Amino acid sequence: xxxxxxxxxxxxxxxxxxxxxxxxxxxxxxxxxxxxxxxxxxxxxxxxxxxxxxxxxxxxxxxxxxxxxxxxxxxxxxxxxxxxxxxxxxxxxxxxxxxxxxxxxxxxxxxxxxxxxxxxxxxxxxxxxxxxxxxxxxxxxxxxxxxxxxxxxxxxxxxxxxxxxxxxxxxxxxxxxxxxxxxxxxxxxxxxxxxxxxxxxxxxxxxxxxxxxxxxxxxxxxxxxxxxxxxxxxxxxxxxxxxxxxxxxxxxxxxxxxxxxxxxxxxxxxxxxxxxxxxxxxxxxxxxx
Length: 289
Hints:
The protein is built from 9 helices and 9 strands. With 289 residues, it is α/β, with parallel strands linked by helices.
């Protein structure tokens, strides 16, 4: 229609037809849907740390149990654990619930002290920690800005507001009480707090629980681009596969390097479970007989 209009716009004999088509085109423009605009995908980064001499974290024959030394060492939750972490480490920690995975992370961070062995950390080491409960570390009566300024006393007001804006916490969202933020927004504040520390090593405990897929993808990309160490406890196959280069299995008091990928670990776990079930059924059949 536009080609017709342009071709005969100056032709007096077809003036009425041209005007009719101009009106038709204008009506089509008015009725046309607004062009769809793809919403920008949210992403963030964890600043890369300065180099740090090795070893960064060393775990030598470490043992621990919440019952303390009153429990025989051979029954401790963790016994004779050995490994190291540096800026190139990408470690996924696997194992059944209650096996001691989170306890191992707490030992490495210094939240609890080992009962045996030696755990050393570089004196200049900064650790960033994120869990499914990280939002609980904030005073929800205060604003995001107030919480962050309380955590990082040397930061300036405008500097922190600009930093939070990189995590899509801006304007009124940065100033209202955190209890008014959504769960996703609270997670972004936790990511901001982690990133502001400029950690050498990031430690995560079930980080993808309660996160939507967009936020998980943002976290995956941030971790992939991060030039520091990583240690993750997770049951999330997607996250572990995308971010970790080596797997360690915690169970029966030990922490053992697993020589394979997550799929092989799942297969191995299912086979062990099936074997235990078969042995239990056999045992019950013997008793009933």
